[in-house]
Amino acid sequence: MRRLPLALIAFLCLASAPIALPAIPSPPAGSLPGMQSRARTLPSTVLVAEAIDHAGLRRVLERGGYAGGNEREFYGKTAVFNHVTEQVLRFGNPAGAGAYLRWLRAHAAQSLGAPRSITATRLGDGGFNYRPQGCGCHTETPTYLIAWRHGNLALTVLASGAEANRRTVNALASRLDTAAA
Fold first, then answer.
1. DSSP type of residue 17
2. What is the spatial distance between Cα 20 and Cα 170, in angstroms, rounded to a whole number?
3. How far apart are CA 181 and CA 177, in angstroms?
4. C-alpha to C-alpha distance for 161 and 84, rounded to whole angstroms
5. Max CA separation in the chain (angstroms)
6. CB 152 within 8 A of CB 97
């Protein structure tokens, strides 16, 4: 009988302990030879602060059960790329990740410029390829955004470089999709 209070306290402590969620995948370092990289976590406050539509993104993240994210930025100059940013964002469910992709697509022109093309991506679900028009000048750097959903993860690759094209950026996205799965 004396052990009952101790057992009850131990049970209550275990029952109230936070449930361990799987770690949010991080884009892999060293996957772009010749480029340096830096990584950072993406709490909702960072995403909202860097967004054009602060209030809208805040609502999307809250309603979608945003749990957090990771980003890796590659920089330097290679024959193909000079800048690549990869993000993996975890939501409470696939619908939350899908809502984020819809918000991102609706605001891509405000961040990257008017689209030259927007097409569906073959990766995951509900994704898209976005290619801004650019300036049309001889020094224009091709830029591409690919965003897609893999379960409750929203993944993005934003890449630019002198020889960047749909094929090379899709290869980056496929590698990130495999790493995050």
1. S
2. 33
3. 6
4. 9
5. 84
6. yes
Report angle CA 10, 16, 21 to the nearest 5 degrees: 120
Give the type of residue at 154.
A
Residues 74-92: pLDDT tens digits? 999 899 999 999 999 999 9
Phi-psi region of 72 (alpha: psi -120 to 50; beta: other; left: phi over 0): beta
Who contacts 91 (Cβ-Cβ below 8 Å, separation ≥6)?
64, 65, 66, 67, 97, 100, 152, 153, 154
Question: Long-range contacts of range 136-143, CB-CB < 8 Å, 24 or more positions apart?
Answer: 141/82, 143/112
State how far the alpha carbon of 80 is from the alpha carbons of 75, 93, 130, 148, 165, in Å: 12, 35, 18, 23, 9
The model's pTM: 0.84
